[in-house]
Amino acid sequence: MHHLRFVHRRLQRRDDADHDRILGKFKERYQEAVHLTLIYPGVKQALDALVQGGHNLGTCKYKPTVPCMDVVKHLDLEEYF
Fold this sequence. Notes:
- The protein is mostly helical and 81 residues long.
- Helices cover 59% and strands 0% of the residues.
């Protein structure tokens, strides 16, 4: 519970310039991390089989759209989505 009070106090004292700076650094590092993402063996073959079976594919993601699509591009999966 102590950590929640700390976060709450910190948010109340938030400086917008500080927030923007920190958020900018986070986004920069988040974008750089795309190259750390690996594809599981057999995923492309499974996607091919689904497409050949007439299935429409989509993504279910927790990431914002732009970083998600950066990962899709990095993994060379654009043709599926």
